[in-house]
Amino acid sequence: MARFMIQIIPFKFPGISKVKCVFTTRKGGYSRGRFSSANLSFDVGDNITSVKKNREDIEKQLKINKLIELKQVHGSKLICLDNTKDLEQFSLEGDAIITSKKNLALMIKTADCQPILVCDKTGSAIGGFHVGWRANRGEFIKQWIDAFCNQYNLNPDHVVAVRGPSLCPEHSEFVNFDNEFPNKFKKYFNPETKKLNLWDITYDQLRESGLPEKNIYRIDLCTYCLDELFYSYRRDKICGRQGSIIWICY
User: Fold this and answer.
1) Is residue 2 domain-resident?
2) What is the mean pLDDT of residues 64-86?
3) pTM above 0.90, yes or no
4) DSSP string, 26-39
5) What CATH number does residue 192 fall under?
């Protein structure tokens, strides 16, 4: 039996009742050892049966039919699901996923990277972005927001976004910053501590994509600091993944 129901952090975009968002934690579930105990990823070495049970627990708890995800590869590819028919066999690489289909739960898996969940103000279209530091460096957020707006004929100021739990600036160390980032990112970097503020980069990139300040929400919970709540790759190396989930209700 599960230790207890998987603990979640719900989020609601103000005034958009049709869209539901949830950020899972590592609490609850069936996984053991380093993956204890609510791991949602099949790709990290956890027991497959445990992961399946964890996913079933979340699907039942949220009353959704199926979690839809991508094989995340730290790239720029965006996948639109609107014309995808066989979701049971769905398996594609990418780091951004969008849809206007109802009751289709999109999931971004993370263990330090920033999960970004977006929707339009009418609640008719949603998306999930996997934002690692490479996505920040490559400025993929603007590319993904542009694609989302083009697909659904939106203005960026009609898009809202929330950034979920992720690595805080205090633990975001980049000892090879000069080799890994262009000069334009130096304003976010402290050369004395070698710390880079990825949270501020993401916020600024959302603003540069056309989102007004009032449309951007942030959940400032650090995956590294809160070891009882979240998985952290930087902290543990071998670990599970929490999920950031968004869907449109019927």
Assistant:
1) no
2) 91
3) yes
4) SSSSS--GGGTTT-
5) 3.60.140.10
Phi, psi for 92 (deg, rounded to 5): -140, 150
Q: Which two tokens stand for residue 109?
A: 């898996």
DSSP class of residue 180? H
d(CA 57, CA 244): 15
Range of the domain at 63: 8-248
- Asked, for residue 78, whether it belongs to a domain, the answer is yes
CA atoms within 13 A on the CB side of 221: 18
Residue 30 lies in a domain: yes
Question: CA gyration radius for the chain?
Answer: 17
Domain count, the chain: 1
Burial of residue 42, with CB atoms counted within 10 A of its CB: 0-12 exposed, 13-18 middle, 19 or more buried: middle
Sheet holding 105-110, edge to edge: 8-11, 19-24, 242-248, 105-110, 67-68
Distance CA 10, CA 139 (A): 28
Task: For residue range 134-179, list pLDDT tens digits in order.
Answer: 999 999 999 999 999 999 999 999 999 999 999 999 999 999 999 9
Spell out where 1-145 has E strands.
8-11, 19-24, 67-68, 78-80, 96-99, 105-110, 114-120, 126-131
